[in-house]
Structure formats: C-alpha cells, structure tokens
Recover the amino acids of this structure.
C-alpha cells in the first residue's frame, strides 16, 4: 500500500531536517562526504521510518531487519537518521570524526549502535549482506536484509560475485537498493567506468529488477521497496535514480562534492536553500 500524501509530507520534512543537520556538522568539522550523504537521504529515510523493522531502543533485537550501508562514506546521513530513531542522542552528531568518537568517518559496527556492518572499502557490503540473509533463513527468521549501494561501488568485481551467489541461493530476503546518482569520486560513472544497461545486467545475474524513476520521491521509493519485498525465490534490487548533492544547488551532480569541505560562504548558501539559515 502506498504511503499517504500526509505521510509523505512528514517524511519530506524529516529529510529536509536531516540535510540541514548533516550540512551543519560537516561545515563545523571541515571534513566528510556531503554529496553521497545527500543523495541517499530519502532511501535511508524510507527504510528506517517506513519499510524496515528496527527498534532504536533495542539495537540487537534478533527479529530486526538488517540495513547495511555498503557505501560507507555516506555515514553522516546514516548517523543522523539512526539518532532520530533513538539509537543514540542527536547531540552526539557533533562528535562526528572526532578522536574517540562512536561516529567514525565510515560506519563501525563494533562502536555504533544500529550499524550492522563496518563499511568503507567499497564492494564488500553486498557479500556480507548476503551472508546475513542466508543466516536469517537458516534461523527461520522472516527478517529482511537491505543493502544500500552506490553506483560507483558496483565497479567492484566482488559485487557481481555476490550477485551470482545470491541468485544461486535464492536469497529472496535480500533487497539491494542502488543509489544511482551517476557520479563518483573522480567524475561521472560514464567517464570512470560505464555501467551500461543495469536492468539487463542484474536480470542476467538472476535478480528481480525494480526501477524507481525518482529516488527522492518517498511514495515512489516505498512502492518500489514494497514490490521488492513481495518477490519470492530470488533476490531483488531497486534501482533508484538520484542526484548527488540533492537539495544544495551548487553540489548537485558535481563529483567535486564527493568529499569536499564546506566553506563559510558555501555553508550560508546551502542553509538558505534548505531553509536552515541561522
């Protein structure tokens, strides 16, 4: 069932707040990854606030769904959403990337409540998510595993090895969501390593492919994830078309904002555009 317009408005307001807070903290610490954090905002919001079974007061709940941010550089947005869900205080965001913080530059499962897997080296996350999915099946659990990937990440060969294995083992409790923002660290995906027809590729590897034409539209995203959850007998992937740096005009679609520090003047412009001017 699609989410209502009223619910979409609530989630849109949350996403705007998350963008403001992430830009705020990244400006304060003068490091981090703004572009990919902004592009994945709605995907993570849809999962944590609408689609996935999680409990911020009980991070180790055995029957929880597992959400794996395989593109670990987008950790600032993950942390902000985990804080909103009650996994740790929102005020802790101010410690991002500080010495001895629980909020490292990339997710660290041993330190941070709600983080299911330590990610940073791109390409490892889908294999680990498949392992989680298979273990859950062996345990008789009905929980799902969601792997949120970047399109630059799928340059890695290990991703496609995991795709083959997931199809072989009929891992229908594994749902990948591709943050298809078309931009990576050094340029566009077409410039660095053209990905070709992703629908045909994932289909050939035995996956059900569901397209979300606007990965920033919460209704479209939730409908696509619902469709993925209904797939039986094979894994599913939602290919969500997104914009790197979404919400901040000078960041949108620019590879330079993959990991660039936000200057004071840029910060003022971003806050004005997001409605977070102080």
């Amino acid at each position: 069932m699609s989410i209502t317009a009223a619910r979409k408005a609530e989630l849109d307001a949350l996403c705007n707040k998350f963008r403001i807070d992430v830009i705020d903290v990244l400006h304060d610490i003068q490091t981090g990854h703004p572009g990919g954090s902004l592009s994945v905002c709605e995907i993570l919001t849809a999962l944590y606030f609408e689609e996935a079974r999680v409990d911020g007061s009980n991070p180790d709940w055995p029957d929880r769904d597992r959400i794996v941010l395989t593109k670990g550089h987008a950790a600032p947005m993950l942390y902000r959403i985990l804080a909103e869900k009650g996994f740790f205080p929102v005020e802790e965001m101010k410690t991002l990337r500080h010495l001895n913080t629980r909020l490292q530059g990339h997710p660290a499962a041993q330190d941070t409540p709600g983080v299911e897997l330590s990610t940073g080296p791109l390409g490892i996350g889908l294999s680990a998510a498949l392992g989680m999915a298979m273990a859950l099946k062996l345990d008789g659990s009905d929980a799902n595993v969601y792997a949120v990937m970047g399109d630059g990440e799928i340059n890695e060969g290990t991703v496609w090895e995991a795709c083959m294995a997931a199809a072989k083992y009929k891992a229908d409790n594994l749902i990948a969501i591709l943050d298809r923002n078309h931009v990576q660290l050094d340029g566009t995906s077409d410039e660095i390593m053209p990905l070709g027809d992703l629908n045909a590729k994932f289909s050939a590897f035995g996956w059900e492919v569901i397209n979300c034409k606007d990965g920033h539209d919460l209704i479209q995203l939730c409908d696509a994830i619902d469709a993925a959850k209904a797939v039986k007998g094979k894994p599913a992937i939602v290919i969500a078309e997104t914009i790197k740096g979404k919400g901040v005009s000078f960041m949108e679609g620019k590879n330079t904002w993959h990991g660039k520090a936000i200057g004071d003047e840029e910060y003022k412009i971003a806050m004005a555009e997001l409605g977070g001017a102080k």
Summary: The longest strand covers residues 174-180. The CA atoms of residues 122 and 144 lie 22 Å apart. The mean pLDDT is 96.
